[in-house]
């Protein structure tokens, strides 16, 4: 697991000191390495490196060139680059004889015990699916093992490309290597020597000699290790691998002869973001182990701007708009014209534009694009048509042809804009076509107040010119109920439609439990909150979720939210990867108000963009006490608008970019009661409020035809 995901500010500062201190190391001859294969030498180095990360390969070459082998040759002379498997191009499930892409929470707890969780039937049954990135990393290591097992080197150092050689590397490795060969019997040999590791629990290693230890399960990082030829074959014989490579290696310690250096001689860099995505982290959040919600902030980048993209209909313009958004652009797309205020700001070079990318905007004619080109020396233009057409007159070096037949679109696009090659698949979005702007402002029936927003490229700062987003003319929408997931009190929830949650999330101080959803004939269902100690939380509560995810529709419930400071009753649509959400929430401290919220992150399913934790909240004054009686609350979610309803009446509406784009990925429908960690937001829970209920009369789901 990459250390950058767990490092706090103090660790980052210490890391920076270690990174700078390494260049002061006077010992630059690493006697352990030799170009000649021998039992007493490491004669090969493999660096696992993605083709799209040449900068990392060059940086590690410079790192290795700081040291010489025993005969004076630079370490790069025995180094080979291994082209890593790229998660982006994984199209099929790996062969089960090589890698099984599922593991259990019990496997995780064997390696990283947690005092709040136990290895029992429940944790054995909780299966975790590896992410695409974890699968790619595992396959890369396995392929390197095959090279080592069939190669001519007796011992090989395997490195991932995001490491550096720590201060004292040469001397520390020589002492460890000498201790290893004094300890190991020649007829038995050894398999694996960790040079880069992080102990999940101190004391998971047994000291053998001064610089040599034998580990127990509890080591993370497979970013730097020495593998003997026999060790590589033994690892291959133990396949299939189950789960991430560093976890699986821990579970093989009893079957292998494994050692570690006295300290980590190779360290992972945490001064740049990892592109990996770890399957266990969201699971640990759900079971309640992760208790701090660390908000992600979109990386501030120097962007070539403005970007203008154009092309024939059906040539991937909406997909390009999504791709630019994923790269961090605030992208306006698929309109017949620019909003008047935006066009004035753009063409008068006021630098007060709300957007920095414009895709498939009819009003951006060839003449206007030439004017933009002359006003903005860093402007970039992208054409998705096979026939360039309107690019005539634009500087050739500032135009990219990104026609549909181009297979490496990310490589072309990111290279053209000078940005890092993304770790997500290029989007394939349904074409929206050019939509006409509507002068009608979004509807607000009741008094509303905007709260503090997140900051991201996908949230516009409000201004008088764009206070209500960008409304587009829309056709009449019609809805149907199929497949029906409706429910009314007195019936039992259909398990094909609804599940009772048994998890939680970091900002929730209660653990959801199915027993807290109580149904009784002739009475509303009750979602109960109560003081009840569990290993991870002091309270339990209730939540239900749809078994299906929906793309657009009407979602409503007749309910009475719970009253009480610190409590929140929620009715919302949600997904992760990328995180998108549409909320109704009732703060128990003041149930005369209804909070609505939208979270938006761009990209197709699987894109790990989860930035922000506030979203874009707005408080609506209901003019009545919601906790006193039942009312119907609903979300009407369309491709070009979101409307919130109370008792069938629209009380608030958002248009695209008011202030976010409209969520465009399938979402799960949820109703819950929970206790917020934020006292500033929800208030402080009092002793009298440690038992409360929200009541639910019915649920209705209508999908968009």
UniProtKB/TrEMBL annotation:
PROSITE patterns: GH16_1, GH16_2. Residues 419-705 form the GH16 domain. It comes from the Bacteria. Pfam families: Glyco_hydro_16, Glyco_transf_25. InterPro entries: Beta-glucanase-like (IPR000757), Beta-glucanase/XTH (IPR044791), ConA-like_dom_sf (IPR013320), GH16_AS (IPR008263), Glyco_trans_25 (IPR002654). Keywords: Glycosidase, Hydrolase. Belongs to the glycosyl hydrolase 16 family. This is Beta-glucanase. It comes from Modestobacter italicus (strain DSM 44449 / CECT 9708 / BC 501).
């Amino acid at each position: 697991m990459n250390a950058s995901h767990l490092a706090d500010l103090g660790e980052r500062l210490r890391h920076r000191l270690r990174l700078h201190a390494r260049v002061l190391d006077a010992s630059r001859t690493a006697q352990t390495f030799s170009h000649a294969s021998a039992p007493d030498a490491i004669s090969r180095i493999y660096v696992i490196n993605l083709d799209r990360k040449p900068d990392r390969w060059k940086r590690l070459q410079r790192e290795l060139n700081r040291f010489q082998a025993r005969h004076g040759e630079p370490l790069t002379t025995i180094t080979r680059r291994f082209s890593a498997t790229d998660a982006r191009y994984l199209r099929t499930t790996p062969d089960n004889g090589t890698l099984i892409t599922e593991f259990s929470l019990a496997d995780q707890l064997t390696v990283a015990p947690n005092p709040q969780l136990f290895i029992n039937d429940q944790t054995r049954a909780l299966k975790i699916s590896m992410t695409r990135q974890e699968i790619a990393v595992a396959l890369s290591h396995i392929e390197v093992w095959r090279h080592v097992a069939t190669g001519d080197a007796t011992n090989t150092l395997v490195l991932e490309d995001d490491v550096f050689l720590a201060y004292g590397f040469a001397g520390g490795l020589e002492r460890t290597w000498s201790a290893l060969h004094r300890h190991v019997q020649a007829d038995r040999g050894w398999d694996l020597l960790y040079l880069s590791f992080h102990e999940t629990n101190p004391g998971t290693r047994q000291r053998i000699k001064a610089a040599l230890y034998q580990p127990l399960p509890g080591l993370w990082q497979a970013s730097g290790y020495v593998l003997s030829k026999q060790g590589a074959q033994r690892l291959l014989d133990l396949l299939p691998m189950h789960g991430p490579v560093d976890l699986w290696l821990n579970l093989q310690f009893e079957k292998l002869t494994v050692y570690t250096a006295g300290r980590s001689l190779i360290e992972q860099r945490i001064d740049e973001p990892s592109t990996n995505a770890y399957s266990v982290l969201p699971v640990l959040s759900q079971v309640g182990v992760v208790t701090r919600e660390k908000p992600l902030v979109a990386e501030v980048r120097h962007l070539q701007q403005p970007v203008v993209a154009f092309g024939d209909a059906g040539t991937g313009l909406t997909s390009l708009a999504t791709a630019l958004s994923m790269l961090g652009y605030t992208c306006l797309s698929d309109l017949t014209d620019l909003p008047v205020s935006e066009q004035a700001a753009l063409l008068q070079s006021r630098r007060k534009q709300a957007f920095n990318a414009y895709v498939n905007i009819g009003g951006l004619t060839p003449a206007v694009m030439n004017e933009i080109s002359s006003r903005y020396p860093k402007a970039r233009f992208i054409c998705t048509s096979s026939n360039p057409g309107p690019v005539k007159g634009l500087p050739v070096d500032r135009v990219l042809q990104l026609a549909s037949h181009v297979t490496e679109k990310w490589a072309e696009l990111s290279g053209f804009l000078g940005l890092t090659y993304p770790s997500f698949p290029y989007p394939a979005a349904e074409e929206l076509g050019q939509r006409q702007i509507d002068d009608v402002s979004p509807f607000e029936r009741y008094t509303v107040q905007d709260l503090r927003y997140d900051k991201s490229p996908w949230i516009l700062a409000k201004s008088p010119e764009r206070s209500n987003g960008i409304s587009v003319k829309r056709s009449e929408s019609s809805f149907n109920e199929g497949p029906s997931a409706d429910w009314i009190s007195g019936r039992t929830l259909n398990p094909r439609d609804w599940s009772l949650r048994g998890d939680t999330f970091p900002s929730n101080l209660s653990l959801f439990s199915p027993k807290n959803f109580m149904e009784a004939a002739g009475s509303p269902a009750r979602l109960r909150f109560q003081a009840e100690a569990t290993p991870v939380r002091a309270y339990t509560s209730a939540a239900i979720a749809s078994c299906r995810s929906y793309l657009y529709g009407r979602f409503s419930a007749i309910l009475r939210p719970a009253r009480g400071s610190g409590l929140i009753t929620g009715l919302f649509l949600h997904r992760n990867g990328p995180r998108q959400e549409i909320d109704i929430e009732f703060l128990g401290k003041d149930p005369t108000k209804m909070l609505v919220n939208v979270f938006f992150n761009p990209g197709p399913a699987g894109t790990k963009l989860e930035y922000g934790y506030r979203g874009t909240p707005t408080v609506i004054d209901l003019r009545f006490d919601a906790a006193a009686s039942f009312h119907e609350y609903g979300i009407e979610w369309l491709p070009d608008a979101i409307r919130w309803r109370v008792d069938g009446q629209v009380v608030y509406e958002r248009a695209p970019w008011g202030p976010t784009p409209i969520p465009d990925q399938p979402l799960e429908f949820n109703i819950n009661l929970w206790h917020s960690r934020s006292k500033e937001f929800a208030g402080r829970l009092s002793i009298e409020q440690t038992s409360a209920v929200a009541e639910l009369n019915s649920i209705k789901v209508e999908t968009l035809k």
